[in-house]
Amino acid sequence: MKLRNNWIILLVGFTHVASAQVEVLGEREKTYDTVDSLVVRSVFDEALINGKSYNQLNYLCKVIGKRITGSQQAEDALEWAQKEVERYGTDRVYMQSVEAEHWIRGDKERVSIDGDRGISLKSCALGGSVSTNGPLQAQVIEVKGMEDLKNYNVGDIKGKIVFYNEPMDKKKINTFEAYGACVSQRYSGASEAAKYGAVGVLVRSLTTLTDDFPHTGSMGYTSGTSKIPAASISTRDADILSQYIADSGTANITMNFNCYTAENPVTTHNLIAEITGSENPEQIIVFGAHIDSWDKGEGAHDDGAGTVQCMEVLRLFREVGIRPRNTIRMVLYMNEENGNRGGKTYAHRAKLANESHICAIESDRGGFSPRGFSIDATSDQVAHVASWEGLLEEYGLHFFKKGYSGVDIGPLKNKENQVDSNLFLMGLYPDPQRYFDYHHSDDDVFENVNQRELELGGASMATMVYLVDKYWYLFSR
Amino acid sequence: MKLRNNWIILLVGFTHVASAQVEVLGEREKTYDTVDSLVVRSVFDEALINGKSYNQLNYLCKVIGKRITGSQQAEDALEWAQKEVERYGTDRVYMQSVEAEHWIRGDKERVSIDGDRGISLKSCALGGSVSTNGPLQAQVIEVKGMEDLKNYNVGDIKGKIVFYNEPMDKKKINTFEAYGACVSQRYSGASEAAKYGAVGVLVRSLTTLTDDFPHTGSMGYTSGTSKIPAASISTRDADILSQYIADSGTANITMNFNCYTAENPVTTHNLIAEITGSENPEQIIVFGAHIDSWDKGEGAHDDGAGTVQCMEVLRLFREVGIRPRNTIRMVLYMNEENGNRGGKTYAHRAKLANESHICAIESDRGGFSPRGFSIDATSDQVAHVASWEGLLEEYGLHFFKKGYSGVDIGPLKNKENQVDSNLFLMGLYPDPQRYFDYHHSDDDVFENVNQRELELGGASMATMVYLVDKYWYLFSR
């Protein structure tokens, strides 16, 4: 790859405006040229031949491991990532302090259907849950989801454990839509049930599989409601419990776990690494992923994949010899999983510093074969990005649609933080079929990540940063 | 699903010509309507909720197992598939006899670098190879591939073992292109080396991974050259052998295996299942996959996936309530892997019977997330298929391009077989990143197939059969 760097640098610096393949897009000129074809090819070639994402992910998963906010592993991951990206030709690498809650799972959870022999259910406390304060025994009542809860009254639920059993809708081709449609039972189910006098909740794991892993995830308590303990159970055990209730007419459950939130928040960090823009150093294109994970598995797809892909963007810029016009900034956010303090802190500080952001890009949908980007932007901005399809479809990138971007970058566009009215957000959109097989479970491990798929994602991120940087002026009109 | 069947049947029968979403495509009208949207949605819903591909594949892989032509398992697979599709509402199910060679691997192959301790190489004979007739010991000479062989002369190679070490090009986004570019060293390498007096060949496994599996595959001997034994070695061992030769300047190899081709061909079968067309029963849309596999792993992706997807097409037609206008015919071909006698026999018999084929569709690129179809057709025909993208992109199907279709259906378009000059061919095109990780190796097992990805492929095949059947007249003009 090295041999080609010099002339690519020359070409990249040569011209703003395309000479070839100019098309009309509304009132605007089309937005890529033959130089871009060469640069993008070089980015993908480098990633597929010498890409470092896979080996970096191996280190992050196998040497450091799972890394919930507040854990030693989370701090080790920050330190490791800092050292690595300092070698990647960055102009500035620094930590940004973040205050966040520290939730601790405690001992292995025990949840079972009571009886002569008892039936143990594969379970885990939801992140943020209070403990059961010793064994919590109560009758269980099954509801299909948050909507179904409204069909009951306090008399039905008071003193009981509510079992939310709404499955993800397998018919959704985009599994994230299925997730979004029923995640509220996990996040808000406890407080809603508490309003009816429930003493605890069990939630069906959010996966399209029937499997034996409890899938964890965040939950929160609404102020003014009593805090009751919440755990997920595997989808197979959810089916077993549901059948048990149907057969027996009733069931009693014992929940027992001692998770807790530490009294004081911890001080941790976001990791930031920049390459200064050659023309507009004050304008920023930020791209990132979250370096924390759940305390299950190894956080390989969520979001080890995004973490190493974003690190790889910096390496690819160096290897291919791309000098950005605007400042490109990688952020590895802390605490996306249980509080999003990293994303919120970054946006708040950016506002305080009056920093000008052109665009924010996130990779947090797993290390699968990339298909494009989901774009939170004006229709004109989406159309500009979509106009690159002709350049990108040979790399399997064809999805450029208006949609959700990501948790970490969302706060940048909140009214109270937004500096630039033209700021737009994008999320890398990989093939979504396998994501929830692993999500937030002990099965989210390195072995379930494919090398080529992962490296293609890093190349896709680098390509998008390159194009937005080169054609930034189209998005600010 | 059942509830919706009746009105869908009504709607499907209602109209040939679209009322909604009509666009101009060259001189032709656009080619789908709102009824199609409903039918396709029902097909995908049924596949994602009640799809049987995954469970069928589990049976085929775990109960029957690998199934090379001539083996008892290959016959068991035919018998099983026949029983299954007879339950799927087919009008006619029958076997078509096929004569094919029977190659037998024999004992576990032994290949090693000679020396005080010897270095064992993970190897397997290539399908069709002759035995080594006891230990075959010779000096090895490494060549980069078929082209590189031409840089040598008889004096360099006579009496030696040629080691073909051309890797698949990782830069190709479509891994099948990388495979196609270097598969000749496996298929023809032995006979080409024999022309230089070589006594045996070793071939680097065709995978983009560095792994420990020898990947087998077919090879053939050119008449008039001496038949020398041929084996593949794992990519990791290919790297080790190459380094050994570089370090030592030379290496001697011992190859020892006793595979052979049975003296007499075996009589086996293609399995055929039809639903008779309601309007044009004499016109056929054929879709298929190969039921044989290599004698490695379980033939899960290659081509158990295609096999169960094609069986599923019949079930989906029944469940959704689609009555085809033309006869739709599933063929499970025997012997794709080492001789393609099934595909050749089918095409030959079709010619003899003067059967009219509109289109042939194949699934033989693994059970991965489907992205579209590779189409061997006229530009006009490709454009017609591509015009369905608006209907299909919400299912992740966006790739509708001119290209190679598949081994089994290829003979239908050979001049000597072709009855219909308008016949066109299509191959399901799934995401290609992982295919060669497993291809022809002991790692091609059920566990490496994802349920949703597999079922989506079956739904994609059914959808394409439905659309070609409904709009068949567009392709015959």
CATH topology of the largest domain in chain A: Aminopeptidase
What percent of residues of chain A adopt helix (DSSP H or I)? Answer: 25-40%
Q: Average pLDDT across residues of chain A?
A: 94
What's the count of strands of chain A?
20
Structural class of chain A: alpha/beta
Into how many domains do the coordinates of chain A divide? Answer: 2
Name of the CATH architecture of the largest domain in chain A: 3-Layer(aba) Sandwich
CATH C-level class of the largest domain in chain A is Alpha Beta
Q: Termini separation of chain A (Å)? A: 36 Å
Cα shape of chain A: elongated
Largest interface: A-B, 26 and 26 residues
Oligomer: homodimer
Radius of gyration of chain A: 24 Å
The DSSP helix count of chain A reads: 17
Low-confidence stretches of chain A: 1-28
Largest sheet of chain A: 8 strands, mixed
**Percent strand of chain A:** 15-25%
CATH superfamily of the largest domain in chain A: Zn peptidases
Spatial strand order of the main sheet of chain A: 3-14-16-15-17-20-18-19
Describe this structure in words.
Two copies of one chain form a homodimer. Chain A is an alpha/beta fold and 477 residues long. The first copy, chain A, folds into two domains: 2-101 and 265-475, Aminopeptidase, CATH 3.40.630.10; 104-261, Glucose Oxidase, domain 1 (3-Layer(bba) Sandwich). Helices cover 36% and strands 22% of the residues of chain A. Chain A has 17 helices and 20 strands. Chain A has helices spanning 2-14, 34-50, 53-64, 72-86, 146-149, 154-157, 175-182, 184-187, 189-195, 235-248, 300-320, 341-352, 379-386, 389-392, 435-438, 451-470, 472-475, and strands at 24-25, 28-29, 92-100, 103-104, 110-113, 119-121, 123-125, 136-143, 161-164, 200-204, 230-233, 252-256, 260-261, 266-275, 280-290, 326-333, 356-362, 370-376, 399-402, 424-430. An eight-stranded mixed sheet of chain A has the order 3-14-16-15-17-20-18-19, sandwiched between helices. An eight-stranded mixed sheet of chain A has the order 6-5-12-8-9-10-11-7, with helices on both faces. A two-stranded antiparallel sheet of chain A has the order 1-2. The longest helix of chain A is centred in the middle third of the chain and has 21 residues, at 300-320. Chain A starts with a helix and ends with a helix. Residues 1-28 of chain A have low confidence and may be disordered. The interface between A and B is medium-sized, with 26 and 26 residues.
